[in-house]
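Let's sit down with a protein and look at its sequence and fold side by side. Please make up or recall a protein chain and show it to me in full. Label the sequence line and the structure token line clearly, so we can match residues to local backbone shapes. Go ahead whenever you are ready, and we will take it from there.
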Amino acid sequence: MDVRWRLDNIYKSVDCQELLNDISEYSEKLDALNTFAEVNFNDKADPERVIEGYIDKVNDILLYNKISAYLNLILSADTENKQAAKLFDGVSAVSAKAAWSESLFREYIKGIDIEKFSKNSVIKEHIFFLRREKEAAAHSLSPEAEKTAAKLKSTGSESWQKLWEGVSSSLMCEFRGREVPLSEIRGMAYSADRNVRREAYESELKAYGKISSVGAACLNAIKGEVISLCEMRGYKSPLEESVIGSGIDLDILGAMLGAVEDNICELNRFYRIKADYLGEKRLPFYDLFAPVGKSELKFTFEQAVDFVKSTYGGFSEKLGAFADKAFEGQWIDAFPRKGKVGGAYCEYIKALEESRVLMNFSGNFEDIITLSHELGHGYHNEALKQESPVNSDYPMTLAETASTFCENLAYSRAEKVFSGKNLLTVKESRLSGELQSICDIYSRFLFEDSFFKEREKGGLSAGEICSLMEEAQKKAYFQGLDVNFLHPYMWLCKPHYYDADFNYYNYPYAFGDLFARSLFALYEEKGEAFVPQYDTILRNAGKKTVREVGLLAEIDFTDRAFWKKGIKNILKDIDSLEKLIN
């Protein structure tokens, strides 16, 4: 079986003429789009023609995402590929030109009633996109001001972000007399040896202490810029900007977080059970990912593929056929190797209607879950095949729906197949991941929200930031963790805090997890009758509001009871785990 992905059907090589021609053509089309905007966005006499023309041109240009997708895939598999890196930087600079036409278009549609053109087939098909752009226009500066802001950003938040990436990526930790990379130290959190976990935790905190002042300076600068721009654009807060960008509203977010708060003590029972299993009263942070049980689960990649194919096929013929296509089409780059990035992700190439999945397979059961998760993203992309590029773009809150749903499929099958200590490992693994998506995500949300509020008053020291993080962890891990062993430097671990475009990059994961949980409960209730409903949800993720997508599954996201229903299923699993341990 091929264990490296196929890329030559995207481009033959980094130096092939087709790629270079497409980059040149992409640049020319962006220039043409900007010219179209400058010439036509003064025409208020025939807005129907102008809007339709703009949509057609944007759909065409979005297909060129295969260029950046290809270069990103190349660099992920070979971080030392200098030619690909140089081309990627150049393409990123070219892509920045799209901001001009976008800002001009938002200015143009401010005073236009787009609803009266709903008989136009192109406009009707893209009415959600237009409504979203019109809403964004209400929070946009003038095109010239946006252009200036983008220029200043390159020497502002983007420079601070690069500084932080450089400092953090080169951080080394001392462990038992030798220097090891931070990534290796963090990986020791999963060790079966408690002494290794604790020493690694202490080494990590000590290393972070050396760069905390630099991190604080970067975070203060980046979040300060975000606060200023939000105020200039008329947002009440960065949180309001975030929820609008995520396709939801504060009522939906409040309902979800309220349900989490109402059940935080019961959810943390998982950590108390785990602490008891490990012989502790409360769980120290370094034991969050301690393995439970002595599982014998070990898989070859071929066995993992068979497991995923059987799982997918058990849900629907369509999902099973997709899995076959992905494996037969060599969409997966499976094993770690020198020069390949860590982690896992799924990349969509709309022009080919194909996805590619990067992972680092080691033979653990978690790798099967990772494979199921990433191919779930691929299936979501598959569901959008018939949609235009514009309508294939969906918000973060829905981005984890299919992936997490497919995780649930895999876990459900595993719990039927495995028994004894292997079943214990599977159940603990599932709950550990879900509680990370709820409790840990909740702590990150609380921290970021409190940081923004304090940053409005002035800059914060590294010590003050650590205090905010500890308070957030105490609230989110209510009576679950040992308060003497928290992780005050978690704000230095997450790169999203240092990206001015990804504020509150946390609650969408809790949203996705609980939404997928509820969808899975519907599947267990309805069986095969749920399958077409599921596909409809995925297909509409880019052309309906999140609230409307929920209604396709008869879900009201503003109802706290809905979110509690998903949490209730998790609490049942916690009960099941406790019985199995006993």
Q: What stands out?
A: Residues 194-232 form the longest helix (39 residues).
